[in-house]
């Protein structure tokens, strides 16, 4: 297990009921990196994030975060340690205001720095400041994604797990979210980006892994993966 890694995963198995989805996944994320996990629908990308965040329990293998084994911990303790998951489809609270959604982000962690973190979120997403009293369910898809990421940032994450942040968004909004992820990383937050949009993910990440049928089949720098024939044909349109 890599001691210098912020996140180190070894031989990870997980699934639902009798179905095994992850089959011996190994990966690491070092402090300050953006690491991409690529793959088509149904290969286990979201299950990986759900297992890392404790929503799905690991069946076998090890997960070390910040030097501590967390594979048997539940989501509240994992959040308290600074591993924060922005799930697929955003999962904001539609009948609560933008401000209330953000406040919930600091419930388990960084509560004492709530106002300072809120200002940082508004600095990154000015549109949210304009909509603090608006119900989250009335926001556009892009605004909801900003809110979901902003809520995660309220917890002052050490590692941010992003699950398909480009899903369902217009290309212009995807470009904006991409730049937001870069800015979050430049501010010192390590990012694990699970994304079907391989071109976007490889454009902003330092390294990446390709997941297929629940196992890692390729790993390398983002430039290496972008030049790989299999990745080009399967995920980058040839």
Order of helices and strands: EEEHEEHEHHHHEHEHEEHH
The major β-sheet equals:
6 strands, mixed
Briefly, what CATH class? Alpha Beta
State Rg. 17 Å
Features:
238 residues; alpha/beta; Rossmann fold; four-stranded antiparallel beta sheet; 10 strands; 26% strand
Explain what this protein looks like in three dimensions.
By secondary structure, the protein is α/β, with parallel strands linked by helices. It has a single domain (7-235), classed as Rossmann fold (3-Layer(aba) Sandwich), CATH 3.40.50.300. Helix content is 37%, strand content 26%. Strands 6-7-8-3-9-10 form a 6-stranded mixed sheet, with helices on both faces. Helix 3 (98-105) packs parallel to helix 6. The longest helix has 16 residues, at 171-186. It is globular, with a radius of gyration of 17 Å.
Briefly, what is this?
The protein has 238 residues and is an alpha/beta fold. Helices cover 37% and strands 26% of the residues.
Topology summary:
Layout: E1 7-16, E2 19-29, E3 34-38, H1 45-52, E4 60-65, E5 68-69, H2 75-81, E6 83-86, H3 98-105, H4 114-124, H5 126-130, H6 141-153, E7 159-163, H7 171-186, E8 190-195, H8 198-204, E9 207-212, E10 215-221, H9 222-226, H10 229-235
Parallel strand pairs: 3-8, 3-9, 6-7, 7-8
Antiparallel strand pairs: 1-2, 1-4, 4-5, 9-10
Helix pairs in contact: 3-6
């Amino acid at each position: 297990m890599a001691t210098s890694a912020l996140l180190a995963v070894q031989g990870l198995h997980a699934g639902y009921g009798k179905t095994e989805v992850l089959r011996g996944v190994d990966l690491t994320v070092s402090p300050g990196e953006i690491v991409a996990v690529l793959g088509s629908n149904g290969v286990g990308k979201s299950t990986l994030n759900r297992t890392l965040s404790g929503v799905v329990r690991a069946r076998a293998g090890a997960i070390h975060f910040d030097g501590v084994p967390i594979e048997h911990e539940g989501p509240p303790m994992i959040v308290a340690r600074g591993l924060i998951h922005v799930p697929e489809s955003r999962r904001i609270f539609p009948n609560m205001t933008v401000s209330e959604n953000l406040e919930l982000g600091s419930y388990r962690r960084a509560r004492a720095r709530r106002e300072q973190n809120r200002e940082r979120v508004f600095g990154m997403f000015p549109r949210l400041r304009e909509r603090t009293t608006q119900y989250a369910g009335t926001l556009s898809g892009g605004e909801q994604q900003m809110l979901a990421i902003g809520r995660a940032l309220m917890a002052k994450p050490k590692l941010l797990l992003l699950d398909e942040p480009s899903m369902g968004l217009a290309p212009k909004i995807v470009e904006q979210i991409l730049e937001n992820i870069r800015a979050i990383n430049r501010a010192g937050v390590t990012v694990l980006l699970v994304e079907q949009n391989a071109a976007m993910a490889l454009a902003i990440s330092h390294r990446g892994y390709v997941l297929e049928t629940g196992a890692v089949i390729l790993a390398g720098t983002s430039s290496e993966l972008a030049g790989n024939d299999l990745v080009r044909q399967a995920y980058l349109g040839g």
